[in-house]
Fold these 2 entries.
Entry 1:
Amino acid sequence: VKLREIGEFGFIDRIAAGAVPADPSRVLQGIGDDASVVRPSAGLLLVTTDLMVERVHFLRDSITMYQLGRKSVAISLSDIAAMGGVPHDLYVSIAVPEDLQVEELDELYRGMKEIAREAGVDLLGGDTTGSRQDLVINTTVTGSAAPDEVIYRHGARPGDRILVTGTLGDSAGGLRIVLESLRLPDEIAAPLLKAHCDPELYLREARLLAVSGRVHSGIDLSDGLASDLGHICRASNVGAVLESGRVPVSAELKRLCEIAGGDPLELALSGGEDYRLLVTVDPDAADALADEIRRATGRTPHAIGRIVEGEDIFLETPDGRLDPLRLRGYDHFKR
Ligand SMILES: [Mg+2]
């Protein structure tokens, strides 16, 4: 079925179906009026927005519509997590090319609604329009946090331990499988493709970190570890040392590189779209925080280095040698 057969209002009816706000005393009006009406929550309001453009951010034939729906919402939820916030509301605007079937849009929105439900977020509105060729998806997520809980990029201090919430480079490995049409055993390919098409979220970890009072700065890893740690360092006027032996790399990514070539560490440092959280924490609190998160979520944050004075980022080899990160050529991988 083509979109023009059901029309814009028929399409909006399909989106609205099943998008009933969980708490009517908080959300007085969702989809269906000129604007949503929401009772403000306590604390500070967080707002983030992301744009996903076909052929720039994704290829329609290398991700399912369901996964694309999940991922387009996940990247905004990840930004709220990076700020230490609780996510509340989702707005989705979409430009739909003529060749896209209504059934594909249903799958896209099924993915969006499912991840929204998992995160406790209500889909409250957006806009729909046509597009000549490419599918364009804009997601906006609001959230909140108490003033003393918000985790900014600035605030890192020399001596801080650097923690990341999961393995790095898996999404870049999944992208390689897609772009190079690699044939790999399913037990290797599946988790890497999942990391690329349907990244995990760290909303519970974010809240535990935020309320601990021991986190000095944070970011979610969208551009790659080296690049995103650079954002923290610039915003905080500090440098950093990454300990290469501690950068967590999955067994699947190692196997991919054994089979198809490449260096797992390089993918971990330069690969984008991991959507793990990176935080810098009081060194006295790092171990206890990591333990607390492991007990609460079953997922263990990894300590991968430390914040230092200065402005440069170094990679420390296991024998203690310091190499400047930007001389190693990772900038070549910048998007
Ligand atoms: Mg971000």
Entry 2:
Amino acid sequence: MMLQDVSRLNNLINSILKLSVFDYGRSARRMKHDYQVHSADELLHGLIDEAIIQCKLPAEAVTIKGTLSQKCVADRSWLKIVIDNLFDNAIKYSVNPARIHISLESTPDEIVILFSDEGIGIESRDQQKIFNKFQRIDRPDSPSVKGTGLGLYWVRQIIRDHGGRVSVSSAGRNKGTTFRIGLPVYPVSKRRYINNLLKLSKTMQTQTDSYEE
Ligand SMILES: Nc1ncnc2c1ncn2[C@@H]1O[C@H](COP(=O)(O)OP(=O)(O)O)[C@@H](O)[C@H]1O
Ligand SMILES: [Mg+2]
């Protein structure tokens, strides 16, 4: 158990370190990117499966539906932080053992991830606030769980950096919560934007290579 805790803390520390660089230099030049063209289906199923194992969720706790045929441009390690945070929240903000429903869909322009839980829900007046830095919602009926109020702030920043968007919806208290993430499809939409991401990644790679030499 101690080893497992150490590994969980290690992951947390690594993501905090990575994200502090991210926050320090919103200037993309300072960040290390590894944007690649991915099969959206492989990428997302892979990240979801890893999170289920890491969170030790029983098989029946998560339903996943939908298959994607598109490609997207993504930095896998940044998207991992996004998916891990959504799982972490769904577990923390459920009173009963978490039940998570994930749906992978697409529109002509976007790959859409719908991530729902059956937890404590979020009232409409709080729904926009939760993406702010250090924002936590104080509710007497909220499970007493620890947090920093940074997770969803990072989620929004990372998704924006991928040219995508994130939103939340909930029918209210104890009615569960759904996060919707839209990522641009490659190469149909925002072609110039995602080509820039790929170029940026290559430049960073060259800079790192020459630095290491
Ligand atoms: N799935 C969810 N269900 C209900 N409330 C949520 C959920 N995810 C996030 N929240 C609310 O949004 C706040 C901000 O979330 P987050 O940025 O991940 O910070 P943290 O989890 O560290 O508190 C949480 O404190 C909680 O009040
Ligand atoms: Mg969180």
